[in-house]
Amino acid sequence: MCHVIVTCRSMLWTLLSIVVAFAELIAFMSADWLIGKAKPLSSEDMDSGTGGSQEPYRPTLGIYGRCTRISHMQISRRDTLCGPYAENFSEIASGFWQATAIFLAVGIMILCAVAFVSVFTMCVQSIMKKSIFNVCGLLQGIAGLFLILGLILYPAGWGCQKAISYCGHYASAYKLGDCSLGWAFYTAIGGTVLTFICAVFSAQAEIATSSDKVQEEIEEGKNLICLL
């Protein structure tokens, strides 16, 4: 018989697992990993005076994507064009970034799988006589290690030609040059920290769903068990 067990700690772990997976996925897909050096306004932009702010635009560069501003001469306004600069995996600007993409992709896939499974932990608390929370926590720890490896390797690719074109000639491995870090990089770091927090907190979720109070509710014949 299926018992639906809902506790504050198990629900919090489930929500955190979903948030972490989405945060890492959004960061990976974003082009805002590096914010490039300021580009001066073109003569068309300065003459038109319709492009909004007259501050120089700073393009952004991601692991496989980029955002840059282009001018539409016919309508005399600036626009931002975002999309992948690499049509396939081999065209990613640096071998280090290729390794970063692999490690992050593996970690994110594990996190997404755990997030999907976590939704069903209200009904299923064990797999092959092993706590589903402990299994998911172990997977989250492994995913966190993959994410750390990816984030460590990413700055090593700052010396590639693509990064230099955005960050200036002073850019090199682990040196930003004229660039600054974008929100996607910080989001990836924050998501990695939360991944390990989720891995540790999964043990608390397991304790909450197997407590004496839960067992008493089951013995009383209740199928829906909600505890604080």
TrEMBL record:
<dbReference type="InterPro" id="IPR019372">
    <property type="entry name" value="LHFPL"/>
</dbReference>
<dbReference type="GO" id="GO:0016020">
    <property type="term" value="C:membrane"/>
</dbReference>
<protein>
    <submittedName>
        <fullName>LHPL2 protein</fullName>
    </submittedName>
</protein>
<feature type="transmembrane region" description="Helical">
    <location>
        <begin position="132"/>
        <end position="154"/>
    </location>
</feature>
<feature type="transmembrane region" description="Helical">
    <location>
        <begin position="12"/>
        <end position="35"/>
    </location>
</feature>
<feature type="transmembrane region" description="Helical">
    <location>
        <begin position="96"/>
        <end position="120"/>
    </location>
</feature>
<keyword id="KW-0472">Membrane</keyword>
<feature type="transmembrane region" description="Helical">
    <location>
        <begin position="183"/>
        <end position="203"/>
    </location>
</feature>
<dbReference type="GO" id="GO:0007338">
    <property type="term" value="P:single fertilization"/>
</dbReference>
<keyword id="KW-0812">Transmembrane</keyword>
<dbReference type="Pfam" id="PF10242">
    <property type="entry name" value="L_HMGIC_fpl"/>
</dbReference>
<keyword id="KW-0278">Fertilization</keyword>
<keyword id="KW-1133">Transmembrane helix</keyword>
<comment type="similarity">
    <text>Belongs to the LHFP family.</text>
</comment>
